[in-house]
Write a structure and sequence with these properties.
There is one protein chain. By secondary structure, this protein is an alpha/beta fold. The protein has one domain (11-400): Alkaline Phosphatase, subunit A (3-Layer(aba) Sandwich). 32% of the residues lie in helices and 13% in strands. It contains 11 helices and 12 strands. The chain has helices spanning 11-24, 75-80, 105-112, 131-140, 151-159, 204-211, 218-243, 257-265, 288-312, 379-390, 397-400; strands at residues 53-59, 69-71, 92-93, 98-100, 116-123, 168-171, 187-189, 272-277, 319-324, 345-351, 357-359, 377-378. The strands form 2 sheets. Strands 1, 5, 6, 7, 8, 9, 10, 11 and 12 form a 9-stranded mixed sheet that branches. A 3-stranded antiparallel sheet has the order 2-4-3. Helix 6 (204-211) packs across helix 7. The two termini are 13 Å apart. 51% of the residues are buried.
Length: 413
């Protein structure tokens, strides 16, 4: 059984790490305090218990699950959405009762090939209709209570057992709470061409001096190493992204998975990636039909292309993608041709090794809670599945604070 890592540096060094690296804009710190990007190249090749990679995709803004995975035999759905409902013959039929939004050809192929699992009715008790609050719950795996660290940050802390340079990469403009960790500071970047150390103008001199000179104390040595790590990370990320070439077309809108592919192909030791579809795009209150169809086309094609690229470079069985949104939409359409904030929705898990198909119970559209579906699968069961069945951490409590049963998306062992 894998136990959480417990022999990290003391509070003083950790405080320096959190405060100092935040201003540097990077924090790839391996075990023993050595910034991971400064470790010898051979260290990344040390045999590990697992080379599996988890890529989490956030569909920010609250995706309308009912118009994504369409309940084509449910009369209540068609009554509630006289203009927005997608007719059965327009969907991409998955099985007798459900079809995909017709623009999601990428996901349709994944499903046909047995590489897409759809978990239905995913949510949590006492749901919040606030984007910020609900996303915080998903980021921390702690609904309706406070938690300092993100679930992926806790996962990274729990997996880092043998001085391995395992760390997190967050592909977006600002760091997500999901990757906030006790012992790791993630590498955060959006545009690799603009990736550099952040800092106020008055801090630039001090940041430059951190890289040069002779450290006089262990704390100065540590901060000097972190500063050089940041400088090295800029070069490594830029080089990996600039040099990566692929014949795979990543779709009309690339929102970050092509950068993940470049880092994986470039030999980064990262095992946890977080990618966000930006700008709260899925918040479709007005004129939803065309906008939502386009968004799902972009997301579906991009994710499917990334997984095809992983197969091309021989990593298809090593990479799993989990895509979620902070909540779904109300069952009934509104007067503006859109849908308002709701509750539960589907979560998608894709990649080689997953047992494709439907999981969980579909929400009952005839037993609503003030116009919203009642969740049927706690989202932490999906997390437990990825933590235990995919990443190999048998005891999920260090990550999820409680024990949750998985969904059986992967074969045991």
């Amino acid at each position: 059984m894998i136990e959480p890592h417990s022999h990290r540096p003391g509070p003083c060094r950790r405080d320096l790490l959190r405060l100092g690296v935040a201003s540097l804009g990077v924090g790839l710190v391996g075990a023993g305090g050595m910034p991971a990007v400064l470790a010898p190249p051979a260290e990344a090749a040390v045999p590990r218990t697992s080379d599996r990679i988890l890529v989490v995709v956030e569909l920010s803004g609250a995706n309308d699950g009912l118009n994504t995975v369409v309940p084509i035999t449910n009369d209540a759905y068609y009554r509630a959405r006289p203009t927005l409902a997608i007719k059965p013959e327009r969907t991409i039929r998955l099985e007798d009762h459900f079809g995909l939004q017709p623009t999601m050809s990428g996901f349709a192929k994944l499903y046909k090939d047995g590489n897409l699992a759809i978990v239905q009715g995913v949510g949590y008790d006492q749901p919040s209709f606030s984007h910020f609050t609900s996303m915080t719950y998903w980021h921390t795996a702690a609904p309706n209570r406070g938690e300092a660290y993100g679930w992926l940050g806790r996962l990274a802390d729990s997996l880092d057992l043998q001085a391995r340079p395992d760390y997190l990469v967050d592909v977006q403009a600002g760091q997500s709470l999901a990757v906030h960790a006790k012992d790791h500071v993630p590498l955060v970047f959006d545009d690799p061409k603009k990736f550099n150390r952040a800092g106020f103008y008055d801090e630039r001199d001090a940041l430059r001096r951190l890289v040069g000179g002779t450290p006089r104390t262990p704390a100065q040595q540590f901060m000097s190493d972190v500063a050089r790590s940041a400088q090295t990370a800029e070069a490594r990320v830029g080089e990996a992204c600039a040099s990566y070439r692929t014949p795979i077309e990543y779709g009309l809108y690339r929102f970050g998975l092509e950068r993940v592919a470049a880092l994986i192909a470039g030999g980064f030791a990262t095992r946890i990636y977080y990618v966000t579809y930006p700008h709260n795009a899925f918040d479709t209150h007005v004129f939803q039909a065309d906008t939502h169809a386009r968004l799902l086309n972009y997301a579906s094609d991009h994710i499917a292309a990334f997984l095809a690229d992983m197969r091309r470079i021989g990593r298809g069985d090593d990479v799993a993608v989990m895509a979620f949104s902070e909540f779904g939409r109300r069952v009934a359409e509104n007067a503006n041709g859109g849908t308002d904030h709701g509750t539960a929705g589907p979560v998608f898990v894709a990649g080689g090794g997953v047992k494709g198909g439907f999981y969980g119970q579909p929400p009952d559209l005839l037993a609503l809670d003030d116009g919203n579906v009642r969740y049927t699968t706690d989202f932490r069961r999906v997390y437990a599945t990825m933590v235990r069945e995919w990443m190999g951490l048998n005891d999920v409590r260090p990550v999820l604070t409680e024990q949750f049963a998985g969904l059986g998306l992967y074969e045991a062992g």
